Amino acid sequence: MQIEITEQIYKKRSIDIDFPYYYKHDVSDDGRDDISVIYGKILIDCEYTIHETRNLYNNQISYNLEWDSRSDCYFKSEYKSTKKEYDSVKQRAKTFFNCL
Q1: What are the pLDDT digits (tens) for 12-62?
Q2: Lowest CB count within 10 Å: 37, 79, 84, 87, which one?
Q3: Bridge partners, 81 (sequence order)
């Protein structure tokens, strides 16, 4: 008897990266009433993230800030962002936390 299986093959390759490296990841869930995006800034040895969530129903905004060791999962073109975009969400988060 033969069955089909799915295999994932991982391989390492070298890519050129300029640090700091900026990314964004839309983690919004279809069918939910919010927009949720993670913005990141990766340095050589660490990573800063700002997770911004906006509720579309009541327009409430929340932020989650994190610092961690560097992750390599966002070095793909689909996540590429800019310093301007990261600085913009950073300013929105600063304004939000200064209002508390």
Answers
A1: 888 888 999 999 999 998 777 899 999 999 999 999 999 999 998 898 999
A2: 84
A3: none
